[in-house]
Amino acid sequence: MGVQLRDVAGELAGVLWREHTVYRERSGGVVIRGEHVRRWISLAPAGGRDEVLVRAGRILDGGTTAPARSEAVVPLSAGTGVLAATCRRLLAEAAADVAPVAPGRTAPKRSKRSGKAARPKGSGKHTSFGSWVILACVAGVIALYVYSSAMRG
Fold first, then answer.
1. Which of 25, 69, 123, 143 could serve as 94's disulfide partner, Cβ 3.0–4.6 Å?
2. Reported pTM
């Protein structure tokens, strides 16, 4: 199934994009990356003998991949045309999820978080109270060791 999947992915990549990279995943699936369109497609064996799980997603800044936005199961015997049509539909769904906002319009508001303060992680310069407690405990253990060593001799 792996060799057949790789062959189908090569044909499919040529139909979808002029510029692409095809590689095999550890799980036995095949990934097609279109860097110029910032999208990826994954083909993996599905539950059925002749079925393929097709997933599509975005490529983020820096080249990392975002989780799949949509997926579908397609029979391999359907041919490259049906697979390509399915992939185009999934890629359109992935693109619709992140459609840019037109000038002069505001982006949809996000729901409020559950009472948490909006503070970026790791960017604060202040040490939290818990960290101070740990530092005080470590300093106390060191002071106790030095004191006990000095008393012995």
1. 69
2. 0.58
CA-to-CA dists, residue 107 to 43, 78, 100, 118, 143, angstroms: 33, 40, 9, 18, 56
Residue whose tokens read 């490259």: 80
pLDDT of residue 147: 92
State the number of CA atoms in the 13 A half-sphere of 106 facing the CB.
3
Which residue bears the tokens 């049906």? 82
Burial of 78 (C-beta count, 10 Å sphere; 0-12/13-18/19+): middle
Distances in Å between the Cα of 132 and the Cα atoms of 9, 64, 144 are 55, 36, 18
* DSSP-derived secondary structure letter, 59: B
